[in-house]
Amino acid sequence: MKDTNNNYNKSLLIDHREKLIQAIKRIKHESDECWNAERETYIQSVEVESEFDDLAREIHAEYENLHRILEMEEDMDMERLRKEREKRVKQLRERERKIAVQGKDLERAIETLNSKLREEDSPNLLKDIKDLLKRCQVSFIPPPPVNTEILSGQFVGPLQYRIWKHMRSSLYPNISTLTFDPETAHPLLSLNSPFTSVWFQDNNEDPVKEGEDCNPRRFNYYYCLMAREGFMHGRHYWEVEVARKTAWRVGVAREDVCRGEMDSCTTANGLWTLALKGGVIQACTDPRPTRVPVSVKPVRIGVFLDCEKQEVAFYDAVTMMPLFTFSMETVSVPLHPFFNPCDTDEGKNTAPLNLFSPSL
Questions:
Q1: What DSSP line would sit under 50-79, residue for residue?
Q2: The domain 182-356 is classified under which CATH number: 3.30.450.20, 2.60.120.920, 2.130.10.10, 2.60.120.10?
Q3: 321: phi then psi, degrees, rounded to nearest 5
Q4: Among the four residues 71, 81, 181, 308, which has the most C-beta atoms within 10 Å?
Q5: 225-226 and 197-200 beta bridge pairing
Q6: How far is CA 177 from CA 63, 69, 231, in A?
Q7: pLDDT the model gives residue 117
Q8: Are 227 and 213 in contact (CB under 8 A)?
């Protein structure tokens, strides 16, 4: 009986030792995972800090560029002011000199006449005085006046507005001038003649012409179109008016994006877009859209494409508040601005999508 108990206890001990060994292995595995996670997080923190440092340098460089532009404008304004100042002061000093010359002539005439008065009477005095009076027929003739009024409007005026207009030509990226590509437009989309406005029209009176039905560039399933302009390098920014619309979609598409039905109109199929759907703004991410919270529905959307950094960013173009940013992988084909005015939503979405071009 005692041997049986000893065997049982020994077996139980072996079993528990095995469980202990397994527990140690499991915890060791968890410890390794924990250490790896700690190391990866540390590396990520270093990388994030480095990326923020790069962004800080980039922002500083952008402001430095703006400062240089402002300094150049200031230098030109101050030089213009300096030249006008020198001109006016020189004219006044020259007038002062001419007046001083006349003053000395008048003083000499006075002195000459006074000296004659001090002479004693003589037979020739009367004749001398008459001759002297003829010679001393001098008078003060003021030189032409110099304009001394300094008008602020000539040098200051709406200075900030003026500088703003001057800076626009130096901005990078400047706002891109786009036009819609009618050859990519779905047959139920209508465009104005400058190709800057597009809307959905059920009874489109300008159907696709015969021979164009097989146009491989035309969207034939979704109510979409692209811009004529495509980009592979540089930074580009454009704005789209979406006011009075209940649904829209704008962004960027690969030049070779599918023109027919797709399993998803997302980044997985070469589309980086922002959309208004059901009163909600959403980024068309894969595998499901991402809601974009906004306090006020934007009336104009700004799209910024950075080909070098492979990013597409969206903004409320009125406030320039960032809305969403996509990170792209390397794209080896041109990227085109992409638009979808959507259907009329039972008459509630008849307003067009307009390419916005600022007046300044």
A1: HHHHHHHHHHHHHHHHHHHHHHHHHHHHHH
A2: 2.60.120.920
A3: -75, 125
A4: 181
A5: unpaired
A6: 25, 23, 13
A7: 66
A8: no
